[in-house]
Every structure is written in structure tokens, then in C-alpha cells.
């Protein structure tokens, strides 16, 4: 997986630099996300894996499916990826692009997992505390997972804070078994 990320990085950087210079970060993020979904479709994977199709045919297939979601530069990007046999990297490129975009905009997406639904006031208070701690704009997405029993799990890029009761019980069991 690390190898695919490494291969995708120069394409991501090129797309990001282009979008930044043209003022189209949001548009490119949406284009890449949509094309990544198309390329990840099981039927599309099967068709794109057909060795009898040329790079041009593969590019045209994706462009025809994504027609309304791709501008001329996006179509050129698809052609470039097809010529280099890198269409399968679109999901990785999309993720990396969004990370570069978040870094540029000084924002971070935080996934908050709780055992029970939190009221919006508490989520806002948590977002404000994270904003101060991380020095970035914070967008919180919350979900409920009753299997954690209680507490919270926060995920923000590579930062994970597991304050769940399930994790604490696992640590206690490990300590008792040692």
C-alpha cells in the first residue's frame, strides 16, 4: 500500500499545484472524488483490467462516464493517468489531494465516535477545544457505536485518542494478565 501512495504522490502534487494556481481546489477535489468512485466500481475495474483496451479507450471510457464532472484539465489528467497505466491510482490521488487541501486551508476533519448521541452544544464545545489544541479549523463528524460502551474515540488524520470504556477495559485485562 505504501508503494501505491508513493507512486500516486507526484500525480497528486501536480494536480494540487494546478488546482491551487487556477483557484479550483474544491472543484478538483470533487472531480477526483467522483472519478475515484467510478474507478472503484467493480464493473469498471473489470473493464479497465481488460488488456485488449488501449490507454486511449480506457481514458475515453472514464471521461464518458464522468463527462459532466470533468472539465478539460480533468480530462487531460485522466488521459495522462491512462497513458502511464495509473488509472487505478485515482482513489489514492483523491485522498492525498484532500489531505493537501486540508493542510493548505489549515483545516482538519475529526471523526468522533461515541457510545451515545451527543447534543450539538457538546460537539461544538469539543470542536472549539480541538481548534485551540490543533491550531486549525475543525470539522467534526460524529457517529454512534454502542460497542465502545462509553467514552469517546477521536480520529484526526494520524492522531487517535481512544478514551473508550472498551479500550480501558482491554488495558486493564492486559495488565491483569501480565
UniProtKB/TrEMBL annotation:
Purpose: F(1)F(0) ATP synthase produces ATP from ADP in the presence of a proton or sodium gradient. F-type ATPases consist of two structural domains, F(1) containing the extramembraneous catalytic core and F(0) containing the membrane proton channel, linked together by a central stalk and a peripheral stalk. During catalysis, ATP synthesis in the catalytic domain of F(1) is coupled via a rotary mechanism of the central stalk subunits to proton translocation.
Alphabetized InterPro entries for the sequence: ATP_synth_OSCP/delta_N_sf (IPR026015), ATPase_OSCP/d_CS (IPR020781), ATPase_OSCP/dsu (IPR000711)
Gene assigned in the entry: atpH
Main location: membrane
Protein name: ATP synthase subunit delta
GO cellular component: plasma membrane; proton-transporting ATP synthase complex
Keywords from the named record: ATP synthesis, Cell membrane, CF(1), Hydrogen ion transport, Hydrolase, Ion transport, Membrane, Transport
Pfam families hit by this protein: OSCP
Superkingdom of source: Bacteria
Family, similarity comment: Belongs to the ATPase delta chain family.
Membrane topology: Peripheral membrane protein
Keyword Ion transport: yes
Coiled coil ranges: none
UniProt GO MF annotations: hydrolase activity; proton-transporting ATP synthase activity, rotational mechanism
UniProt subcellular location: Cell membrane; Membrane
Amino acid at each position: 500500500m505504501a508503494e501505491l501512495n508513493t507512486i500516486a504522490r507526484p500525480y497528486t502534487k501536480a494536480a494540487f499545484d494546478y488546482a491551487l494556481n487556477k483557484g479550483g481546489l474544491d472543484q478538483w477535489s470533487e472531480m477526483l472524488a467522483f472519478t475515484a468512485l467510478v474507478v472503484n466500481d467493480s464493473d469498471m475495474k473489470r473493464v479497465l483490467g481488460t488488456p485488449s483496451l488501449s490507454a486511449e479507450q480506457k481514458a475515453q471510457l472514464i471521461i464518458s462516464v464522468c463527462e459532466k464532472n470533468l472539465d478539460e484539465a480533468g480530462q487531460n489528467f485522466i488521459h495522462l493517468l491512462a497513458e502511464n497505466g495509473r488509472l487505478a491510482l485515482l482513489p489514492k490521488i483523491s485522498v492525498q489531494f484532500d489531505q493537501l487541501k486540508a493542510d493548505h486551508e489549515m483545516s482538519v476533519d475529526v471523526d468522533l465516535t461515541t457510545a451515545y448521541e451527543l447534543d450539538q452544544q457538546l460537539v461544538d464545545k469539543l470542536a472549539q477545544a480541538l481548534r485551540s489544541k490543533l491550531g486549525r479549523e475543525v470539522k467534526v463528524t460524529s457517529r454512534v457505536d454502542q460497542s465502545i460502551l462509553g467514552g469517546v474515540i477521536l480520529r484526526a488524520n494520524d492522531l487517535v485518542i481512544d478514551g473508550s470504556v472498551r479500550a480501558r477495559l482491554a488495558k486493564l485485562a492486559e495488565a491483569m494478565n501480565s
